[in-house]
Each structure stands twice: as structure tokens, then as C-alpha cells.
Design a protein that fits this description.
The complex is a heterotrimer of chains A (361), B (292) and C (235).
Chain A (H helix, E strand, L loop, with lengths): L13 H5 L6 H22 L2 H27 L6 H18 L4 H23 L4 H21 L1 H4 L5 E2 L11 H25 L1 H11 L1 H6 L4 H27 L1 E2 L6 H15 L6 H21 L6 H20 L3 H18 L14
Antiparallel strand pairs in A: 1-2
Chain B lengths: L1 H31 L6 H17 L4 H24 L8 H22 L14 E4 L2 E6 H23 L1 H11 L1 H6 L4 H23 L11 H13 L5 H22 L4 H15 L14
Antiparallel strand pairs in B: 1-2
Helix pairs in contact in B: 1-5, 1-8, 1-9, 1-10, 2-3, 2-4, 2-8, 3-8, 5-6, 6-8, 9-10, 9-11, 10-11
Chain C lengths: L1 E10 L2 E11 L4 E5 L6 H8 L7 E6 L2 E2 L5 H5 L3 E4 L11 H9 L5 H14 L1 H4 L11 H14 L4 E5 L7 H15 L5 E6 L2 H7 L2 E6 L2 E7 H6 L1 H8 L2
Classes of the chains: A mainly alpha (361), B mainly alpha (292), C alpha/beta (235).
């Protein structure tokens, strides 16, 4: 199966080489993550609490989107139900918070584990499915999970949902900034781990399976296992993101995980650039700010208060369609292309990659 | 016992509706190898149009007919504008585009018609028929559902089996390139397949709306049930869609009747997973033809 | 009369045909010969509109074929039998035949044409309602040939009809082809890797190598050129 979009190599723009970053992937990704952390620290400490809250939301969506990007862009599987994995993560963490007094870290690990487990259950039949079948199954998953929480409302809190508590911030840091920090650190750790994973043997087998399952199995790759691993990792990322979402909103209820969430995740991933990790920041910004923009936009057009949510939905749908038809590499792909253009213009002819001759011998 | 009978009857009526939408998915899948995830939303949109027409005093049957025609045109339009440009690309692209169309249509319906669910009239009485002295959970409207879907199924079978247009449609679905070499206008027939699917989708919307909370999302679950039905039936054959629809309708009805309606989607998920695990290849691939 | 001028086709960076010029006359079989990858199949696919060329012209009886859709070219009387026996396996034998007549015949004429085809290939008449997938290789070849001839084409493009057939069946098919061409205005272009059997039945021949025309002459002349035969045709 061919991927929906060509996926380029990992962030290895020429400037990376010029700055003489460590050549070891792990070390390089860590250095980049620390730089990112420093920038984000500077940003969050200068922002208002509400903006900190938004930055934290961006970070949590990056986690979910990165997992989805890995699944679709690098392993060729599609999920229309990632909102369900987020719900599992959110409810798992919230249940632990309600009934126990554990450390946040343990609660997050539990959220990751629970979502990963569901990923395993869904991922095993998924290994035998081609695109549209998997899409339909995950779509059904997104619709099937939330009613369960309503059915056992004493456990899951019914319409009210479960409340979550953010551990109190040390010192004089305000709680929004503290939460944003937890989420940012979570996102950066996730990105570093995923970036390393993709540089590893596993990453290469993900891509090999995506490009041609038969060839991959002939090359000694266990295709089914590779696909299940990709699905579990992707679901686990969504679980962590869901737990973080629960922390941000303060409550976990089924209304937070409608089908549209899953579809918005897909749209954000596609827009950011399927198969990239850094492109997911663009997608996450869209997820956080688009609802606000559409509210103000629908105000401008006097569309009434109910319409703003729908306007955001319409925009997400249009993004999906337009990107797929016109620009399948998304924003990150476009930026890479532009960057390469600029670079090749500056370095002049003869320095670019040689044109590959594909004449038969 | 009476619960069992009523749940069965209810499952039968629902199963017929799922079969209609499953038929729409089948018509498109066999022609273009695409699952149209927007099929339910297209039916939702046309049902809202019907609702508007009824609100303006148009008679029920005229609105019914008009909406089937609109479904036909909408199906053709979607194929030409959104699906044609994706030809030759990865199979994930049409999935994503039809999902995009799904949310665009839901957003549009929400913007235009508002969120609050409104009622939609049924063609016939929805109160249960009386057999002997007991009232059963099967109404005049359920009879109409049965008849309407059977007419649709029969019409499709006659078209495919007994007309030269159907021969051309089957040939283009099975072997597009060879059909073109024999002078068949394959492109037009693919569009026609989408258009006919649009009719089936519109019909299912009109049949679901009276018994559901009719709003922008009322077809979401119907779509995934229909998808389950289509997959059980093999995604290739109209008869399979009918059988799959009935299996799905009955299973979901039993889950709802005995375990609670909240678990119905989960029941469908289990059914779908079992179906896919049981025949992972066979269910969606037509038996491979002997190539010599 | 089929006239091809300066036809060039590329798949990405690969040139499949490089400025190919040739012609084929009515009432004769023109064999296109050459090794694997010579561009023979591409040539036929370009004539019938399945492949868009980079440059060149393809004229048939004065009509320019390039730029037309494959189904429109078929409706000009061009019958292309693709490589690997293009039967539609899921349809019955009769439906395979019927499909080819839908654009050009009325109901009565169609029935006559189908009967005539079954007379031509009596073996097939027992299988009318059987799915084409149940036929043997030779029967499939009869079916595609019958299907190609049923619409009374003026140009017949055959791609490797002998592939995988027993020599005796091949000989029968070739004889039938010759009978159908001689003394009519049917133009036949026959692509074959089996150069020996193709030369035995054709009047003209064109040798392709790596997308270029190496030689084009009467079949007898090419068959007599042992150097050429040895170098390009492998016998």
C-alpha cells in the first residue's frame, strides 16, 4: 500500500548540519527538545494564565497528533477513532484520581497503558485490514465507546463526568503555567521518543510495511507484529493526550469525545503534514485556535451563537478535502519544499542532489 | 416472549434500513473500490431538504420523490468534483476526503437548520399493528420500510442482471480498462454508480428520520451499522447487503432489547470485528478469478 | 490504413518509445516484433488511447486517434485485445460478447452477431452461460478474439495472443486470423514475442528494440535476414 502522502526524511534541514548538532540521533533529538523547552519556557512565563492554558492544550494535542502521524504517515494505517483512545486515557486517569491518591506520573502511565491495551485489541484485527475497512472499524469505535460511560454512569459519573485535579504547583508558579509545563514536558518527551523510534530498526520496518507488505515480509520483517506495535504506540500517545485533556478541562465526560474530535485530529494531522512529527505543532495550533477564530468569524457574519461550532466543523472538513486533493504533504511538507528551494537557490546549481537517472541499463 | 417478538420485529425494520444504506456503500465500492463515509451525511442533508420542502407545504410524496432525485444529483456531483481528482492515488485519500465531506455536510446542516432535533413525519402511522388482541411493535410505517427497501433491492438486481446498462456497469466495475477498449464509457458509469448510491442513501435517510432524533448527526450511527452490514455481506453484492443488513439490524436490536441501547454501537463493533476476523480476505475480495 | 509518425512515449524518466514511425495496410497482418521491453505493448496501448504519448501522430483512415478517449477510439472501429487475454472473468461468455456490441448494434443484429461468433468458435457455444473464469487458456483466447471481431472492427490490435498456448492452438488461431484478414479491409497489428509463428502468418513486419524501429519490411524479407533474426528475434 502506498502512503497517502510522500513522507520525507526526519527533520534534517541543512541548518541542522551547519549548527553542528550532535550526529547521534538520540543526542540530537535531546538537544533540539531542550532548545524547544527553553523557548517554550520563555514563552509561557511571559504569557497570561489563559494563554498558558492554551499552550498546554497545544502540547497535549501534539502528543495525540504525533501518534496519529506515525500510524498513518509512517505505517500506512488509518484511524478515524483516535478520540476513543483519548477518552480511555482521560477516564483511566480520572478514575485513579477519584478513587486513589497516587502520584500524577502513575496516573499518566496508567492512562497510557489502558489506551495502549485498547490499541492492542483494535490493532490485532487491524493488521489484516486494508484502508477503508480499518477506517470503518475505527469510526465505529469512536461512536461505540462514549455510550459505555453513560451506561455505567455510577462508575463513570454520567453526564457530569469525573473531576480531575492538577497537583499543586511548587512555589509561586500559577497553576495554569504549572499544568502547561507538565503538558509541554510530556509532549517533548513523546516527540524525542518517537523521533528516536523512527530512526531505529522499528521505524524502518514501519516504513517498509507501509510501502510494500509483501516485500517487507520477504525482507524478514514480521508485518503483523510491526502493524500492531505501531497501533499500540499510536493509541498510547492518544491515551496520554486524553489524560492531559482531562487535566486541562477539569472534568472528564463523554461530551468531550464526540466523533468530531476524532475527525478533527485527522484533519489537523493531515494539515500539519502526514508522517511528520514537527508538522504536528501546526495541526495542534489549528485544533486549539480554530474554534475561537470561527466563533469570532461567525460573530462577524451574524451567524448566531450555535453556528460557530458548526463553522469550525466545516472548516476542518474543507481542510481535509482541500489538503488531500491539492496539497497532500500538508504545511510541514510545503515548508520543507520551500526550504529546499531556498537552499538550492542559494547554493547554486551543481550543489543540489544529482538528478537520478532511471534509464534501464 | 413478547419482548423477543417485538425486538425481532424492530430489528427487521431497522435491518432493512441498514440494508438500503449498505446497498449504497456496495454500489460505490464495487465500482470504485471506495467506501463512501459521507453516504450517511448525504442522506442526512437530503432529508433536511425534504423537511424544508414539507415545511413549505409540499406534499409528502412529492417531497419524497424530489429528494430521491436530489440524492441522485448529489451523488453524481460528489463523484465528479471530489472523487475523480483522486484517481490513481492511495486508497487512504478517498477515505479522508469522504470523511471531510461528512463533517462539512454536518456542519452545513447544523448552520442552516440549527442543532435542536426536529421531528420528521412518517409516510404511514407509526403505532403498532394489532394482531389478534395484542399490539405488536410493527407499524404501518415499518411495512412501508420493508416494501420500499425490497423495491429498491429488486430494482437494483433487475438493473444489474437484466439490462444492458447493468451489464455495462458490472463490466466497468470488474474490468474498467477492458470495458473501455470495448467502447464502454466507464467514466459515465462510475458517476452513475455514485448517483444511484445517492438515491439509496436518500431513501435510508427518509426512512430513519421519523424514528430517530432527527438532527445533523442522526445518520452517523446508521452509517456505521450499514458499513457493518455491507462488510458482512461482502461489500460487493446487493443481496449480501440485504443479508448483512438484516443480521446487523437483528443483532443490534437484541443488544438494545436485552442489554440496553447504549451498548448497541459496541455490539456492532464486536460483530464487525468478528466478521472481519472470520473472513479477513474473503469478505472484501471477490473470489479471485482464475487467471490462466 | 494505420499511419504512425514520430511517436514518443515516456513513463517518468523512461522512454518507452522513441520517435516511432510505421504504417500498417488493410487486408494484411503487420507483425510487431522485438524482445521484452522493446515497447511493443506500449505501442498498442498508445494506439488504443490507454497511454498518452509525449509527441507524434497516429492516424487511422484519416482520423487522428491521439487525444481521443479509449472508448471513443474503440467506437471508431479499433479493437484492442490486451496482453494476458482480456476476458472479463466475472461475466458469462455471452455477456462478454454482448458487451462488445452494445455501442454498435440493435437487439436483433446483436443476436445474429453472437450466433455467428459461436459458429466461428463452436467450442464456445457450449459455454454460453458459464462464467468466463471457468474457461481454459485456449478457450479464453477464442473468446477474446471472437469478442474483438464481433463489432466488425477495421483495425485489430493483438497483444501476444500465443502467450501460454499450446503450439497446435496457436497455429489454429493464426490460421483463423489469416482467413479473416485476406481479401478484407481489416488492418491487423500483431504483437508477438514468438517471432517465428508471427512471421509465418504476417505479410509485413516491424522490429522494435528499446523503443526504436530497427527495421520494417515485408515479413518474408525479415524472415530471410538471418543476422537480424539472430540479433533481435532470437531464432
Amino acid at each position: 500500500m502506498t502512503p497517502p502522502v510522500p513522507s520525507g526524511s526526519w527533520p534534517r534541514a541543512p541548518w541542522v548540519r551547519r549548527l553542528r548538532l550532535p550526529t547521534q540521533p538520540l543526542a540530537r533529538h535531546l538537544v533540539l527538545a531542550l532548545c524547544g523547552a527553553a523557548i517554550l519556557y520563555a514563552v509561557t512565563s511571559s504569557l497570561s494564565p489563559y494563554n498558558d492554558f492554551e499552550v498546554g492544550e497545544i502540547a497535549l494535542y501534539v502528543i495525540a497528533l504525533a501518534g496519529l502521524s506515525l500510524l498513518t504517515g509512517l505505517n500506512g494505517q488509518i484511524s478515524l477513532g483516535h478520540g476513543a483512545f483519548m477518552a480511555v486515557g482521560a477516564y483511566s486517569a480520572a478514575l485513579l484520581m477519584t478513587h486513589t491518591h497516587l502520584n500524577l506520573l502513575i496516573e499518566l502511565v496508567a492512562a497510557i497503558g489502558a489506551a495502549g491495551l485498547l490499541g492492542l485489541v483494535i490493532g490485532i484485527p487491524a493488521t489484516r485490514l486494508k484502508g477503508p475497512y480499518l477506517a470503518g472499524m475505527t469510526l465505529l469505535l469512536a461512536l461505540a465507546l462514549p455510550p459505555i460511560a453513560d451506561k455505567w454512569s455510577t462508575t463513570f459519573g454520567g453526564d457530569q463526568g469525573l473531576t480531575t485535579t492538577v497537583p499543586s504547583a511548587p512555589g509561586s508558579i500559577n497553576p495554569e503555567e504549572w499544568l502547561a509545563w507538565i503538558q509541554i514536558v510530556g509532549a517533548l518527551i513523546t516527540l524525542v521518543l518517537l523521533a528516536n523510534l523512527l530512526r531505529s530498526r522499528y521505524g524502518r520496518s514501519f516504513r517498509a510495511v507501509r510501502d510494500d507488505e509483501i516485500a517487507a515480509s520477504l525482507a524478514g520483517i514480521h508485518v503483523a507484529r510491526t502493524k500492531v506495535i505501531a497501533f499500540v504506540i499510536s493509541a498510547a500517545c492518544a491515551g496520554l493526550a486524553g489524560a492531559f485533556l482531562g487535566l486541562s478541562t477539569g472534568v472528564v465526560n463523554t461530551g468531550e469525545f464526540p466523533l468530531t474530535l476524532s475527525i478533527q485530529l485527522l484533519a489537523a494531522m493531515v494539515l500539519g503534514g502526514t508522517g511528520t512529527l514537527m508538522g504536528m505543532w501546526w495541526g495542534a495550533v489549528l485544533l486549539v485556535y480554530l474554534p475561537q477564530w470561527s466563533t469570532s468569524l461567525s460573530g462577524d457574519f451574524n451567524l448566531g451563537s450555535g453556528a460557530s461550532a458548526y463553522l469550525a466543523t466545516i472548516i476542518f472538513g474543507v481542510v481535509l478535502i482541500v489538503v488531500m486533493i491539492a496539497a497532500p504533504t500538508g504545511i510541514q511538507g510545503g515548508l520543507r519544499w520551500a526550504w529546499r528551494r531556498v537552499w538550492s537557490l542559494r547554493s547554486g546549481p551543481g550543489d543540489g542532489t544529482p538528478t537520478v537517472s532511471r534509464h534501464p541499463a | 416472549m413478547s419482548l423477543f417478538v417485538n425486538v425481532t420485529l424492530n430489528g427487521l425494520a431497522n435491518g432493512m434500513i441498514f440494508a438500503a444504506l449498505a446497498l449504497a456503500l456496495v454500489l460505490i465500492f464495487r465500482a470504485t473500490r471506495i467506501v463512501n463515509f459521507a453516504q450517511g451525511a448525504m442522506g442526512m442533508m437530503t432529508t433536511f431538504i425534504a423537511s424544508s420542502l414539507l415545511g413549505r407545504g409540499v406534499g409528502y410524496w412529492w417531497a419524497f420523490l424530489a429528494v430521491l432525485v436530489i440524492g441522485f444529483v448529489l451523488g453524481a456531483l460528489v463523484e465528479r468534483v471530489l472523487i475523480r481528482p483522486l484517481q490513481g492515488k492511495s486508497e487512504l485519500n478517498p477515505v479522508i476526503v469522504t470523511i471531510g465531506l461528512l463533517v462539512v455536510l454536518e456542519g452545513l446542516a447544523g448552520t442552516i437548520y440549527g442543532n435542536s432535533s426536529r421531528g420528521f413525519p412518517a409516510a404511514y402511522s407509526q403505532s403498532g399493528l394489532t394482531v389478534g388482541h395484542t399490539k405488536i411493535a410493527f407499524s404501518h410505517f415499518d411495512v412501508f420500510i420493508l416494501v420500499a427497501v425490497l423495491v429498491l433491492m429488486t430494482g437494483t438486481l433487475v438493473l444489474f442482471r437484466a439490462t444492458s446498462l447493468g451489464l455495462r456497469m458490472r463490466a466497468s466495475a470488474f474490468a474498467g480498462e477492458i470495458s473501455r477498449l470495448l467502447g464502454v464509457r466507464v467514466g459515465v458509469l462510475l458517476t452513475l454508480g455514485w448517483a444511484l448510491a445517492g438515491v439509496a442513501g436518500s431513501l435510508s435517510g427518509l426512512l430513519v428520520a421519523p424514528t430517530s432524533s432527527f438532527g445533523p448527526y442522526f445518520m452517523d450511527l446508521v452509517l456505521v451499522y450499514a458499513f457493518t452490514a455491507a462488510v458482512i455481506g461482502g461489500l460487493e453484492s446487493p443481496v449480501g447487503a440485504l443479508i448483512g443488513g438484516l443480521i446487523t439490524g437483528l443483532s443490534i436490536s437484541y443488544v438494545g432489547g436485552y442489554l440496553g441501547s447504549g451498548l448497541q454501537p459496541l455490539g456492532a463493533l464486536v460483530l464487525l470485528m468478528v466478521a472481519l476476523m472470520a473472513r479477513p480476505e474473503g469478505i472484501f475480495a471477490r473470489p479471485p478469478a482464475r487467471r490462466v | 490504413m494505420l499511419e504512425i509518425q514520430g511517436l514518443s512515449v515516456s513513463y517518468g524518466a523512461v522512454d518507452a518509445l522513441k520517435s516511432v514511425t510505421l504504417s500498417a495496410r488493410p487486408g494484411a497482418i503487420t507483425a510487431i516484433l522485438g524482445a521484452n521491453g522493446a515497447g511493443k505493448t506500449t505501442l498498442l496501448r498508445t494506439i488504443s488511447g490507454l497511454v498518452k504519448p509525449r509527441a507524434g501522430a497516429v492516424r487511422f483512415d484519416g482520423d487522428e486517434l491521439l487525444g481521443r478517449a479509449a472508448e471513443d477510439i474503440a467506437r471508431l472501429g479499433v479493437s484492442h485485445v490486451p496482453e494476458g487475454r482480456g476476458v472479463i472473468a466475472e461475466l458469462t461468455v455471452e455477456d462478454n460478447l454482448r458487451l462488445a456490441t452494445l455501442w454498435c448494434m440493435g437487439r436483433r443484429e446483436r443476436q445474429k452477431a453472437i450466433e455467428a461468433t459461436f459458429e466461428l468458435f463452436p467450442r464456445l457455444s457450449g459455454f454460453r452461460r458459464r462464467h468466463a473464469s471457468t474457461l481454459s487458456g485456449g478457450e479464453r483466447q477464442m473468446l477474446v478474439l471472437g469478442r474483438a471481431l464481433i463489432s466488425r472492427p477495421r483495425l485489430l490490435l493483438l497483444d501476444e495472443p500465443s502467450l501460454g498456448l499450446a503450439p497446435l492452438v496457436t497455429a489454429q488461431l493464426m490460421a483463423l486470423l489469416r482467413d479473416h484478414t485476406q481479401g478484407t479491409d481489416l488492418t491487423v497489428v500483431l504483437v508477438e514475442q514468438n517471432a517465428r509463428s508471427a512471421l509465418s502468418v504476417s505479410q509485413d513486419a516491424v522490429v522494435l528494440n528499446l523503443g526504436e524501429v530497427v527495421m520494417s519490411d515485408e515479413a518474408a524479407v525479415i524472415a530471410a535476414d538471418s543476422g537480424l533474426r539472430h540479433h533481435y528475434l532470437g531464432f
